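Input.
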Amino acid sequence: MTAPDQYDHAPPDGYPVEYEADVVLRDGATAHLRPITPDDAALLVAFYARVSEQSKYYRFFAPYPQLSDRDVARFTQVDYHDRLALIVTVGDEMIGVGRYERTGRRTAEVAFLIEDAHQGRGLGQLLLEHLAQAARENGMARFVAEVLPDNRKMITVFTEAGYKVAREFEDGVIMVEFDIAPTDTSFGVMQAREQRSEALSIARLLTPGSVAVIGASRREGTIGNALLRNLRDGGFPGRLYAVNTDTLVDEIEGVPAYPTIREVPDTVDLAVVAVKAEMVADVVLDCAAKGVRGLVVVSSGFAEIGDEGRQRQRYLVGLARSYGMRVIGPNALGLINTATGVSLNATLSPLMPSKGRVAFFCQSGALGVPILADMAGRGLGLSSFVSAGNRADVSGNDLMQYWYSDEATEVVLLYLESLGNPRKFSRVSRRLAGRKPVIALKSGRATQGVPVGQMVRRSQLPPATIESMFRQSGLIGVDTTGELFDVAQLLAHQPLPKGRRVAIVSNSDALTLLALDTMAGCGLEAAGEPRNLRADATASDFGLALSEVFADEKVHSVVVIYTPPVQSNGGEVAQVLAAAAADSEKPVVSTFLASRSVPEELRVPDEDGGAARGSIPSFLNPQYAVGALAKATQYAEWRRRSDSRIPDLPDVDTAGGEDFVAEFLQRHPAGSELDEADRQRLLSFYGIPVLPAFPVLSADEAVDRAADLGFEVILKATAEQWRMRPDLADIWRHIHDEDDMRAAWAEMTHTFGVASDPARAQFVVQKMAPPGVPVVISTIEDVSFGPVVTFGLSGVATDLLGDRSYRMPPLTTRDAAEMVREVKAAPLLYGYRGSDPVDISAIEDLLHRVSRLTLDLEEVVRLDLRSVLVSAQGTTVLDTRVRIAPNEKPRQDTPARRLT
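Output.
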């Protein structure tokens, strides 16, 4: 088997490389989707020869045994705009094709042909998604198709896509017609399909029936020997094979050995690769020929070594995906699955964790081993574990899709060094967090650093963006690995809190004070006075206090602190604590004999001998216990909040905005800042009125413009170097007449030192707006995150302190409400020190409109509502800045499924 060539020659002019995508099929295997080229003629003919006569009849409505040369030329020569064909390939074979052809200004006819052996794998839905996305980009809004009545599979492709499909029966043919604009329903259908297929692709890796270690060695201390031993000693019940081209022996470490994987007599589901980097591509081809379903590449020598390694890594991933395989790594520690009947330890760690309900994803191999050791020391069992190394293919997004439907996993832990696709991460993690707690630690937040070997787009956004994205998605963000495991220890064993009020039962005044201080800093409330017992309190003393707090309806959570007297009665105290908590739905955390785990005395054993739900975790000190409880409480509040929705904005004219952007880019192909008139026009499509501002170059012009406006105006310097200067007044308000204007002009030109050249200050005259609190709303198109919306109050102090909130659109009603309320200066909006409260709903509405604009129009790379006055009567937008530029790199999360 050889590596597939996408093209015999360079792609033709106009070939849209952005339409290429690696995709996951319904059964979890991968394939490559791309536009057709004239060089695909032979590929098309071979494909058509394998298609059944019935499928050909369904496609052409008549017997069509073979394609003529004219057919082949027509089908392979397209303009990629009005006529587009996308093909799906596995290895060096085409298995499906879909195409559209424009039939009107906004309409195109669509058709598909799938090889019979690959029907039922979801190719039709994938092709439809990608064709619809391309058609929308090329100005089309509606697809039509003709389908024979008994072609039920194709009818199903259309009806299950989530679009509103209209059907008519005419002359023995069903006429199908539907708009291709994404809808909540179609996007929901896509997400559900994406989750199922990506979860299956990970299940193929985590639940193999047979494993081969390629590069296995007899020599102790080598990677190949360690991998083989760990698989064998971890209790893997399936078939295990050793592959080493340098050995002629029949077995290694008691495992059957073969020179190549092709010579293994049975099927192989998973290959663990530990050979030199330059040999990996040949190994991938051997695995493809053997029908291997997935790879764990432990080998180093890829992107972490520089340009040569990056090219080698890209080739590895493209080659594996083209043959239907997912890849963990390269430079990976490996994967673990503790499920009964699997017991898979395909890692370099000799430690096989105990079975549990916590799943873990990390990227660092060096960190993976101590993480496993730390979890074992805490008695925290694992369901599954993946350390992905360079994360060239399988990422945390894929694992979250798997854990979403994995019944063995109740809590998910993520140690993230980079985010390859932040938009998809936000979407997938939010969906998972709605079902299971997700605890995340992101390293490199302060520097936005990217580890060597991880090929990701480097964001220019501040570190606070990550924290805001975590909050938006319901993730539990932590700062240390210790905190990561503290919160996991609580959530794996105890229920979620139903409120913020916490009762403390303690026999140490000093530790009680530490707990109270931590609660105050974390936003938790004391439920009455702590139950402070004597240092030598007995088990019955604890029992009485515990029965009171568990019976108190005002108590939502309980913290128990027990430090042993000289004569320890810990066992008896543990018994009364366990008994008191057994029938309660209130979470309990403890500092019990300063242990850091689930003490034996507080453990409810599960069927595997581990700690079941209801076990009471212990922390080294009450600060850790309360900190974990605070994180769990915040997450519980996020889960309890009423369902949020993306509001309808019926007055938004998306088509008008799209046409304006297209027309603007025709005038400015390289992109440009918009002038006042263009800004007004663009924002009007999204229902954002702006108070007009009129540039003036002299006192006479300023007087004339103010007179036209009927005075009651302002004179404002808009040049960036003078805006918001604390030592200069850039705005002169309450100009009532000509004398006021001339005085304002003289004073401001003198203050700014521009009397001889007023143009430097960029003065404008503007009608006075109603008084209010000034706020700023901005969006930026980041190369990594895509569009991000920012909110804050205006002012130098706000800028200096970074008091901003961030969210990724689309914004739900909850998102907008939280953005306004979480900035530290928010009290100024709610009547601070006797001022009038402003119209918060008007701010939220403006946030939704800006969010919708930046989501619809990705060419709007920067939008600033630089001065918005908010009063009790609403908002007034005074000053804006907008930049439009062509897309240099398309957004990573689109309405069409793809691996990124």
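The first strand starts at residue 21 and ends at 24.
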